[in-house]
Amino acid sequence: MAQATKQGAQRGILVDPRVIVAGGLVALIGVVLFAFFIWMVPKAAARESQAACRGLHATGPALCNGEPCPLPMQAPNFTAIDHNGKPVNLQDFRGKVVLLNFWASWCGVCKIEKPRLYKMAEEMANNEFVVVALASDRNWTDVLLALVDSLSPTTKLPDGEVSLDQALQLYKQALPRGVPFNVLLDPPKGDDNIGTITASWGIKAVPESALIDRNGMIRAYFVNKRDWESPVAETCLRSVIDN
Question: Do 19 and 136 share a domain, yes or no?
Answer without folding.
Answer: no
